[in-house]
Structure formats: C-alpha cells, structure tokens
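YM 10:42: D-glycero-beta-D-manno-heptose-7-phosphate kinase sequence, as discussed on the call
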Amino acid sequence: MLLQKIRSLPSGLKPPKILIIGDLMIDQYIWGDANRLSPEAPVPIVNVNKESNTLGGAGNVAQNLISFGAEVIVAGLIGDDQAGKELLAVLADENADPTGIVIDSKRPTTIKTRIIAGSYQIVRIDREVSEPISQTSEDELFHKIHAHLAEADIVLFSDYNKGVLSPSLCQRVITSCNSIGKKVLVDPKGLDFAKYKGAFIIKPNKKELAQAVKFEKIGSTQELKNAASALFELTDAAYLVVTLSEEGIAILTKESYQLLDVKATEVFDVTGAGDTVLATLAYFIALGFSVEEACELANHAAAIVIRRVGSATTSVQEILEDMENDHHNHN
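YM 10:58: structure's back
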C-alpha cells in the first residue's frame, strides 16, 4: 500500500539531488481589498494591505522540492538587475545551489505581478523578454548544466516559453542525460514538443497536448489517446502524464492508459499547481517510486496547493495527511 510505503521510508534517508533547468522569475503579489469602483473607469480600486515576492517558474518548482526535503541545483538565466539579485538571495536562503545560473546583462529578470483583492486575482502584469537566449548564453548555460549532471539523481525541464529552453539546449541536455542514464522530466510549453525528444516523462495539460499535435480539441478519452499516440511518435517519451484539471491526471505509455480521479474538493487558485505536480513526480521517482505511484502522490499534492491562494508548496507530511483523510472518507 502506497501510504505504508511512504511511512516506512527510513528517517535517515539521503535526500535526492535534483537539477532543475528552466525559466526563472519573480512572482510578486500585491494584496488588498476592493470595495468600490474607480470614477475614472469601470475597474475596482484596490487598497493595498501588503506586498510579497516569491520565486516563480522554475524557482517555484525548486521551492516545492525544497519543501519535500530534496537537495536542489538550479540552472537558468537571470538579468543583471535588482530582481535577479533578489532571486539569488531567495535561493541562498532556501539552501538551493545556484551555480547553474547564468547572468545575462542584455535581458531582464522576468517579473510577474499579480494584484489580488480578497481571494481573487484582479490583474497580472508581466515584465519580461521571451526571445530565445543568445548562443553565447546557451553555451555558458550548457557548460554549467553539464558540470552537475553526474551528481544529479534526476533532471527537470521547467519550460515557461521565455526563451531559455531552446530546441538546441534541450537536445544537448537530453542527449547527455540519456548517455549516462539520467531521467529527464519535462513540464512543457509552446508548440515545439520535438525539442523534448528522448525525455522520460513529458507532463502537458490537455490544452498543451492538443496544440502540440495540432488537434482542435480533446473531448474524449479516445481523442486523448490519439493525441498521446501522435506525441509519442514525435518525442519517443517513455511516459506522458496529462493533467486534466477537474478530471484528474492521465498516465499514458505507448501501450497503456490510466486515469487518476481529481482529489481537490475546493479550488481557490491553480497558480503553480503544475509546478507542484512536476516536483512531486521528480522527488518520488528519484526515491525509487514507480511513475504510477508518483502520479498518485502528485494528485494529492496538487489538491493541497490549489486550496491556497498564490503559488504554494506542500510537504511529504501534508501529502500523507491528505491521503489518510481521503482513505478515511472513502471507508
């Protein structure tokens, strides 16, 4: 039983070391109350109560892994600016290893600002450059990544389509990983899934899967299987893990299909839920759990974080408690 398997993990277990490659950003939250509309335009006036900054994108995956107890190496690109310095400072506070990060003075660090009134997000403001990184930056980044591959138990791509995970960088890393037996897990973005060819797991949502294989939509289980077949043909991945929002999570190989029902009973904010799923998969697969077991745990982890507002993290203990509650409610 999965619950028993987690409980029986030894207390002195060596934490897995996980290398995260992807788009790093700052998630800025401005919290307040909105009780009236502006006389200037039909928009709410938000009276600000507090502001907070946290890591977004690949950085949110890192924080999820750190909250599980993993050792984390972070690789990506930041600007030579205040936001970049802040991002490095947060990683240092979290005891993450930032030696895979390249500073590019020609690009700003991505900042996403969310204005939240009560429990509701009113607007998001993005400050970013999303063109592909320069060849010089890519070469420097690959050199830093390659230096960490031997020590990593598993490698993650956290792709937010901001230009870091270019087709050539993806293939250079996947080829290197496959040559030394390291699994690559991908949270994909964009339309070019061919750049992930050779990855172990690709984790799209239903819309991303449809767009990647040029399906107008995926409305049935058969259409999902057909889309998955097309993506397996394109990428030769071992597994597809497709997040289906309120329908749960689908686990597919070239020969099999399994659906895990959604565990969430309340949904306040889905921000970062995909990051939590990716982190949970990586952590438990690195510990030797099967993909199916890791997906079951990721399903519970996602249910926990979407009950909270803003990019959130969870822990192994909270996942255990959620599983125990779920088990109790169904018996």
